[in-house]
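[SOLVED] Need 3D model of a two-part complex

Original post:
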Amino acid sequence: MMKEALELIQSTLDATLAAKKIRSFWNNRTETEDANKREYIVYSYSGGDVPDSADDHDLVKNCSVTIKYYYEKTLTASKSGRTSILDTISLIKSSLESHDIDVSEPFDAGDINSNGFYAVIFECEIWSVV
Amino acid sequence: MSVKIELGDLGKEIANILDEYGDEVYEAVEEGLDAAESTLINRLKSNSPEGKTKQYRAAWKSKGKRYKLKRYVHNTKMVQNSEKETIPLSNILEYSEDSKHQGLIKRTFDDSVESMSSAFMEAFKKKI
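Solution:
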């Protein structure tokens, strides 16, 4: 379940953000040549795989994934930069929802890594029938 | 106990009784939410890292009853990053790539669901 969930997140984000060259990474960012250096995504497994049962039969399982969209602080200095950030946030949310992934309202967590990038957090739940 | 109601006033009386019952249920739900919230706050306090000052652990708070039938719990401890920006410490501990406490708040919440439900039901039943 976890493997399928993470693959679904990766493929969804890749397809959605390819035009903006925003790359998505599982757990750790790695350098890629043609990537957008000012924006990137790191997602990680954050729990789940607990089955919900009825009459001693497992019905569904869920998997929680945290997605962090990072954008360079300097992008907020221009109107086009701010618009692009909001557009990306909206794209991420709608693309995940279109794959039946439950997505929390994204929120700004600030510069959590002290590296000049702000983070926007999406908490996701992926459900699958057992 | 019986209540004498004129037939013409029946609809109005039923509406009044339902209103009163609705108020009681509303108050019971609010009490239940308070109990569930306290449970979560206590769990967060006991699971959070102590740190040197223990301020983070003590800073789990309720936002009170400003939202009907909802409760929000947050941590009020703020810190400054290298660029002097103020940021909630809970954001750093929960989400920073370097934090060894990543996901602790979510795990604590998930693990507290059953005890929150029990606390809610206990308080709710006391009221109804």
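Edit: The longest strand of chain B covers residues 60-62.
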